[in-house]
Design a protein that fits this description.
Elements (H helix, E strand, L loop, with lengths): L2 H11 L2 H12 L5 E2 H8 L3 H13 L3 E6 L2 E6 L1 H12 L11 H4 L16
Antiparallel strand pairs: 1-3, 2-3
Helix pairs in contact: 1-4, 2-4
Pfam family, one: HTH_20
GO molecular function: DNA binding; DNA-binding transcription factor activity
Keywords: DNA-binding, Transcription, Transcription regulation
C-alpha cells in the first residue's frame, strides 16, 4: 500500500461508528451483513450509516454486493492485511525475534463463536 492509501484507510477507521462498523463486518466474514442490519445492530440511522460506509468503501476497507433489494457489505480483509502489514513490517528494526507477541497466533484473543450466537 502506498502512503496515501494508508492514510485514507486509517482516517476512515478514526471515527467511532466506522470503527464499530468495520469490526462488526470482520466478525461476520465471509457472509457480510446487509446495510439495514448493520444500522440496526449499531443503532445508527441508515442515512448516517450509508455515509460512513461510503467513506470506508473509498478507503478500500469494505465492499458492497447487491442481493435483490439489499446491499450486503463485507470487510475487505486483503486491504486490512496490507494495512496491518505496513504498520508492523519494520517491527523492532528488522529483528522480528524481539516482537513475538505481535506475530503470535490470534486464536487466544479470537475464540470461535458458536453458530447463531453473534451479536
Amino acid at each position: 500500500m502506498d502512503s496515501e492509501s494508508i492514510i485514507l484507510a486509517l482516517g476512515a477507521l478514526a471515527q467511532p461508528t466506522r470503527l464499530d462498523t468495520f469490526r462488526l463486518l470482520v466478525r461476520h466474514e465471509p457472509e457480510g451483513l446487509a446495510a439495514g442490519e448493520i444500522a440496526r445492530r449499531l443503532d445508527v440511522p441508515q442515512n448516517t450509516l450509508s455515509a460512513h460506509l461510503a467513506i470506508m468503501a473509498r478507503a478500500g476497507l469494505v465492499a458492497a454486493t447487491r442481493h435483490g433489494r439489499s446491499i450486503v457489505y463485507r470487510a475487505d480483509l486483503a486491504t486490512f492485511r496490507a494495512l496491518t502489514f505496513h504498520l508492523v513490517r519494520d517491527c523492532c528494526d528488522g529483528r522480528p525475534e524481539l516482537c513475538p507477541p505481535l506475530f503470535e497466533d490470534p486464536a487466544p484473543c479470537c475464540p470461535p463463536t458458536p453458530q447463531g450466537s453473534r451479536p
